[in-house]
Design brief:
Length: 211
């Protein structure tokens, strides 16, 4: 099999999905490709470069999905609709990759062009909306962090235990509001509403003349 950077990224993402960042190594990627570790370095110089390429792939796929969603909006769509059109596909894109949320969260640290493109477009959307310049970077970062945090919870396999009828009754008595709300919304509905709540908060920063 002829090695290419794309095949190495494919194998790296598979190893990352199984073992996480600390389990990822050029040796393990090479084993997955049935190749010698030294042969990978011609295409990808080290683990840090591989992580950067992996993060960039996830971010670029998300960026392209957002581009398609924005193009489907009607002309003159409200800025909040444009935010949703970027964040909803972003969530779906990174969910397709086990560990995708972690990769995307780390991508700004490795200067992924794809991740920076996501941030740039969000900043432009907030600028066009009229969000004051001193709040734009924090606002855009909060929106992106919300997506990665939400997906991280979705991708984390937490240990569970069977809940008896007695357990359920005790929980309802101790935490009636929490239990009543649990399961009231699907994850898709919860995510969409959470994005709208964040946008509603950002909207309070706008001058009253443009709200």
């Amino acid at each position: 099999m002829k090695l290419t950077a794309e095949k190495i990224i494919d194998a790296g993402m598979a190893v990352f999905a199984e073992s996480g960042y600390h389990g990822l190594s050029m040796r393990r990627v090479a084993q997955r490709l049935d190749a010698q570790a030294g042969s990978l370095y011609y295409h990808v110089p080290n683990k840090s470069a591989l992580v950067r390429l992996m993060a960039d792939r996830v971010a670029r796929q998300a960026y392209d999905a957002g581009t398609a969603a924005l193009a489907a909006l009607p002309p003159g769509a409200h800025w909040r609709q444009r935010i949703e059109a970027q964040l909803l596909p972003l969530r779906h894109s990174i969910r397709r990759h086990p560990g995708g949320a972690i990769m995307l969260a780390d991508s700004p640290k490795v200067l992924s062009p794809g991740a920076m493109s996501l941030m740039e477009r969000l900043l432009e959307t907030l600028r066009e909306a009229g969000i004051p310049v001193e709040h734009r970077a924090v606002g855009a970062d909060t929106l992106l962090s919300h997506v990665t945090g939400f997906v991280l919870q979705e991708q984390t396999q937490s240990p569970t235990r069977a809940v008896t009828a007695e357990d359920a009754a005790a929980l309802r008595e101790s935490f009636p509001l929490t239990v009543a709300e649990a399961g009231a919304l699907t994850e898709d509905e919860k995510f969409t509403r959470s994005v709208r709540l964040l946008c509603a908060g950002l909207e309070t920063l706008l001058p009253t003349t443009v709200r």
